[in-house]
Amino acid sequence: MSGASSSSSGGVVPVTVVTGFLGAGKTTLLNRILREAQPRRIGVLVNDFGDINIDSQLIASVESDRIALTNGCICCSIRNDLVSAMAGLVLDQPGLDHVVIEASGISDPVGIAETLFQPMLTSRLSIDGIIAVVDTMNYPDLDFDETELALRQIAVADIVLLNKIDLAVAEKLVGLREDMRLCSPRARFIETCHAEVPLSLILGLDAASYLAIRQQPSAHHHADAGHGFVSMSWRSERAVDLKRFREFVRTLPIAVYRAKGFLHLASPDTQCATFHLVGKRSSLEAALTTSPSSRSELVFIARRNAVNFDHIRLALDQCCT
Hints:
Blueprint: E1 13-19, H1 26-35, E2 42-46, E3 59-62, E4 66-69, E5 74-77, H2 82-92, E6 98-102, H3 109-115, H4 119-122, E7 125-135, H5 144-155, E8 159-163, H6 170-183, E9 188-191, H7 199-202, H8 209-215, H9 218-221, E10 229-236, H10 242-250, E11 256-264, E12 272-278, E13 281-286, E14 296-303, H11 309-317
Parallel strand pairs: 1-6, 1-7, 2-5, 2-6, 7-8, 8-9
Antiparallel strand pairs: 3-4, 4-5, 10-14, 11-12, 11-14, 12-13
């Protein structure tokens, strides 16, 4: 892999940015990278540990803002400052071979890439590539603003993963592929299920994404891509009744576009479960992973001014025993 041992010798560490709209499969891809990383040491930056499900057998230790993994990789949480988080990760872990940043589903990767151009980072880091993940099943149902954001994420990508291809409507795939290629003619397109892709195709690209980013108008760089969305977090130490929760999900407003997290269930068979919702599709599965705590933790993302989150909080509280 290009740059695989550069950091251990004091050189420049390659950075991959993983972007994609809400529910596209970024976390699935990130978990795949972590599972298949050996013998490489990967540093990962995520917005919140609640957003990434890490296999429990991989976890060596958990600190307030860092998860150490048994395979030598390290996951750090981005609190408020990406520059500080990135600088701290590289300085604290001098043997890293690669860094992966999982961008928020409602963020523009251009802003993240521009951050890496900061003088304090350019001597230690370089952009290896930008990977955009596309939810081919739900993409045709996005509204105008959501589609515009998804296309901005794709426009600067070196690799576009057309994910969930097994769930997509075949008749809509032709137009989707055409839209994607018009948006990003220089990108390589790979069709995937569950973000299954060899790491050799997405890491070690040594790509020139930053050149394309530099050529874009500055006004575009600083656009607030997430202005149309708001989020809500809910936490509870009380166990959740599974039957009540399923009914709660059934009655969720359609304006809730994305939800995910961990549930501590009042069930003798399954005490911890992971919950995912993308559009109208949801899943609740026994956790193969572990939460940072034993409490339930959920995040909901919806269109601004379209959902009463107080009602959702109350309904969730009523699901608890």
